[in-house]
Amino acid sequence: LLRGERGRDLQGRHVVVSAGGTREALDPVRYLGNHSSGRQGQALAVAALSRGARVTLVRAHVDLPAPAGVDVVEVGSTGELRDAVVAAAAADGGADAVVMAAAPADFRPAEASASKIKKTPEQPAPVLDLVPTTDVLAELAAHRARAGQVVVGFAAETGGDGRSVLELAQDKLRRKGCDLLVLNDVGGGAVFGSADTEAVVLAVDAPPRPVPAGPKGLVAHAVWDAVAARLG
Ligand code: CTP
Ligand code: CA
């Protein structure tokens, strides 16, 4: 039904989607990471494919089968994710849209230890020296590989400090410089890893559009509706 309503409105388009959570090595056996399952990014890839797009999916540590018919690039760290997404976004004259559904690690150890960090009972616990990773979304938004390339971010917010999730997300949309930002309210803690989600699509130049609670495929189609409207 969804496919029937939208038709193949992304036919002839190339879209890039990132998915999953990146990991930053501490030593050869340990990393800093997060609980992103990659389900939302995979749902976006499948939805775009069903609407006729050529899809490049850059995914980090997604423990799900790669969707058939999608060009998949597997990455590990935020640096690798950045390089793969920037390359895919610039390929063949530039992708029509880039959707950053991945959860990149925000910080990495300043230096990864070449050998396994050992615990020595007489020594104090090690202190981790962290440095920020590249903000891929902000970079994509600032350096578009083609005029009119639609750049989309995701944000999971809990609110706090007297600021609502919507206020935080509006700020993030402007700070990142992207066209669309999909907000997931994770105050209840139920969004990560679940098949269902509740989201709001924010645009730089249009009122927020809520997506009713439902499977991540529904959110995915709502994102492509907003992208297709911008591509015209
Ligand atoms: N993002 C990115 N590169 C990073 C961190 C985040 O491209 N190094 C992208 C995510 O893929 C997402 C968007 O930025 O589309 C928002 O991610 P989020 O973690 O909510 O924002 P941050 O700017 O990292 O802010 P914070 O984690 O402090 O809320
Ligand atoms: Ca972050």
Automatic annotation (TrEMBL):
> Region entry Phosphopantothenate--cysteine ligase: which residue ranges?
15-232
The GO terms this record gives for MF are: ligase activity
* Tagged with keyword Metal-binding: yes
Name what cofactor the protein needs.
FMN; Mg(2+)
Q: Which residues form the DNA/pantothenate metabolism flavoprotein C-terminal domain?
A: 10-229
Write out the entry's keywords from A to Z.
Decarboxylase, Flavoprotein, FMN, Ligase, Lyase, Magnesium, Metal-binding, Multifunctional enzyme
What this protein catalyses is:
(R)-4'-phosphopantothenate + L-cysteine + CTP = N-[(R)-4-phosphopantothenoyl]-L-cysteine + CMP + diphosphate + H(+); N-[(R)-4-phosphopantothenoyl]-L-cysteine + H(+) = (R)-4'-phosphopantetheine + CO2
The free-text note explaining how the cofactor binds reads:
Binds 1 FMN per subunit.
What's its EC? Answer: 4.1.1.36, 6.3.2.5
Q: For binding CTP, which residues are annotated in this chain's numbering? A: D106, K116, F154, K172, K176
Pathway per its UniProt entry is: Cofactor biosynthesis; coenzyme A biosynthesis; CoA from (R)-pantothenate: step 3/5; Cofactor biosynthesis; coenzyme A biosynthesis; CoA from (R)-pantothenate: step 2/5
Q: Member of which family? A: In the N-terminal section; belongs to the HFCD (homo-oligomeric flavin containing Cys decarboxylase) superfamily. In the C-terminal section; belongs to the PPC synthetase family.
Its function, per the record, reads: Catalyzes two sequential steps in the biosynthesis of coenzyme A. In the first step cysteine is conjugated to 4'-phosphopantothenate to form 4-phosphopantothenoylcysteine. In the second step the latter compound is decarboxylated to form 4'-phosphopantotheine.
Instruction: Report what the protein is called.
Output: Coenzyme A biosynthesis bifunctional protein CoaBC
Q: Which organism is it from?
A: Nocardioides lentus
Give the lineage: Bacteria, Bacillati, Actinomycetota, Actinomycetes, Propionibacteriales
